């Protein structure tokens, strides 16, 4: 049995004997399908609206995920002229984005900085300007102070500390 699509057989005990579908039973089926109760992370956001008047399903009720992201459950009656519901699922709290989780920027776009070209036993530096922002260790675009915008003198350098970037030579 696949969790991405589960068929639930209905009957008098599941949906009741009335003219309309038992919404409490459908809520329980959705909770069983998602593995979480209503209102909990991974479960239906809210119970079905009790104003719904769905025809009682004579055959089966199919439950499946609407998308691979499991953001809602599709509940469908397979009867001729049946119905289909989309039940939203409570997603987990958003994880901090990569931008929020990374180290703070120590160099900002437009900052004056020293561009150090380093090689085996030597270092040469010149003044420059940061064309991008970034934290320590990030590679950003920089331009020597004598360079013009869009010139081929723009290069990528690694941030060493605030005000200093490095271009290591092999």
Write a brief caption for the model.
The protein is mostly beta strands. 12% of the residues lie in helices and 34% in strands. The chain folds into two domains: 5-88, no CATH class; 101-168, Roll (SH3 type barrels), CATH 2.30.30.760.
Describe this structure in words.
With 170 residues, the chain is mainly β. The chain has a 5-stranded mixed β-barrel. The chain has 2 domains: 5-88, no CATH class; 101-168, SH3 type barrels, CATH 2.30.30. The model is unreliable at 1-17 (pLDDT under 50). It is built from 3 helices and 9 strands; from the N terminus they run βααβββαβββββ. The two termini are 57 Å apart. The protein is rod-shaped, with a radius of gyration of 30 Å.
What is the count of helical runs?
3
Separation, N- and C-terminal Cα atoms: 57 Å
Number of strands: 9
Question: How helix-rich are the residues, as a percent range?
Answer: 10-25%
Return the structural class: mainly beta
Number of domains: 2
Give helix and strand order, one letter per element, not per position.
EHHEEEHEEEEE
Please give the radius of gyration in angstroms.
30 Å
* Low-confidence regions: 1-17
* Overall 3D shape: rod-shaped
- Biggest pleated-sheet summary: 5 strands, mixed, barrel
């Amino acid at each position: 049995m696949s969790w991405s699509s589960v068929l639930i057989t209905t009957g008098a005990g599941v949906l009741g004997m009335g003219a309309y579908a038992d919404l409490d039973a459908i809520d329980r089926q959705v909770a069983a399908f998602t593995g979480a109760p209503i209102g909990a992370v991974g479960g239906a956001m809210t119970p079905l609206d009790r104003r719904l008047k769905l025809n009682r399903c004579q055959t089966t009720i199919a439950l499946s995920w609407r998308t691979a992201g499991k953001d809602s459950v599709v509940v469908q009656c397979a009867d001729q002229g049946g119905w289909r519901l989309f039940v939203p699922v409570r997603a987990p709290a958003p994880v901090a984005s990569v931008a929020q989780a990374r180290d703070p920027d120590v160099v900002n776009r437009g900052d004056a900085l020293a561009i150090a070209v380093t090689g085996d036993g030597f270092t040469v530096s010149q003044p420059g300007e940061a064309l991008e922002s970034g934290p320590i260790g990030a590679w950003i675009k920089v331009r020597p102070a004598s360079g013009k915008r869009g010139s081929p003198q723009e290069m990528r350098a690694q941030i060493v500390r605030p005000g200093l970037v490095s271009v290591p030579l092999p």
